[in-house]
Write a structure and sequence with these properties.
The chain is 22% helix and 22% strand. The protein has one domain. By secondary structure, the chain is α+β, with helices and mostly antiparallel strands. The strands form two sheets. The chain has a two-stranded parallel ribbon with strand order 1-2. InterPro entries: Phe_hydrox_C_dim_dom, PHOX_C_sf, Thioredoxin-like_sf.
Length: 77
């Protein structure tokens, strides 16, 4: 999130081997047993914001960049 440098850490969680086109694209975590995907109900591509207190602040399935920007605009006012 370029609009909020230093305030947001991004992580990509993939269930299997990392596709080559994603190499070098930031923090990437592998979830080969699907534990995180199962815990968060992620059955297909999705986007979550996990707040520092561990609660889900935002989610969209499929990922919706405009809705995410709107969420951050509201919370960072």
């Amino acid at each position: 999130m370029r609009a909020h440098p230093g305030r947001i850490a991004t992580h990509l969680i993939v269930p299997h081997e990392l596709p080559e086109d994603l190499a070098g694209k930031g923090e990437i975590l592998l979830d080969p047993r699907g534990e995180l995907h199962h815990r968060y109900g992620a059955r297909s591509a999705c986007l979550y914001v996990v707040r520092p207190d561990g609660y889900i602040g935002f989610r969209s399935q499929p990922p919706d960049a405009d809705a995410l920007r709107s969420y951050f605009t509201r919370i960072f006012l």
